[in-house]
Amino acid sequence: MKNSEEVQKISYSEFKIWNECTHKHKLIYIDKEPYYSGNEYTAFGTAVHTACEQKIPNPEINALEVFESEFLKELTELKENDYSLDNKLVSEMRSQAVPICEQILPAIIEHFGDFEVFSTEEALMTPIDEFPAYDKKFKGFIDLVLKTTDGKYHVIDWKTCSWGWPAQKKADKIINYQLTMYKHFFAKKHSIDAKNVETYFALLKRTAKKDVVELVRVSNGAKKTNNCLSLLERSVINIKRKVSIKNRLSCRYCKFYKTEKCT
Length: 263
Prior knowledge:
The protein is an alpha/beta fold. Helices cover 47% and strands 20% of the residues. The protein has one domain (4-250): Alpha-Beta Complex (Lambda Exonuclease, Chain A), CATH 3.90.320.10. Strands 1, 2, 3, 4, 5 and 6 form a six-stranded mixed β-sheet that branches. Helix 2 (12-20) runs antiparallel to helix 8 (173-190), helix 4 (40-55) runs antiparallel to helix 5 and helix 8 (173-190) crosses helix 9 (222-240). The protein starts with a helix and ends in a 23-residue tail after the last helix.
């Protein structure tokens, strides 16, 4: 028996999974098959994310100390779940976190100049009334929103990665739609003109030799927003209809591939 909260919300993550493979969506969101699991990379991402979240509003905080504390907590949890850690990788990650923690605030200041922190980890649970959405709300968490002296709001999503993103990934429509949705529903939540909201991925690079913090601006004009909402509408309608078709083109990195759940 599913509770009403599960029935009435859709997140970007669910939208992305549905557009990758509707059968995979069914297994994860309808059948509740376990899919996501932690590892050294998720532990690193969570710890860096927490360090950034605390450092930007409070410059006096030692971001590296925050990282170390959170990283240890995440690694301890992995070990308690019988995960076998790669100690060499863990040691490398501790070193890789140093320049990120040192450069995150200077990079933000250099890019945005004078700013105030509008919110961190802002929760979105915004009604979808742009189309018949069967009472669904859009659920999301915005990592950071800054407001600059020109009255602009800047929505930022932290992304940990190795050396960065290739141009193809930066231009990927579905990846960019995360920020399109965040911008649209953030502006709607606060009754802000969407023209005054800008969006960015902040790439936090573990192995880069320079520019370990890169701000990638993503443009989200009216046409792109309409296209995004149209695809969201199609997703919501077909989820309601319980459409479940296997997309064999997305099998390669799927954990269900060649298992009894997807044969």
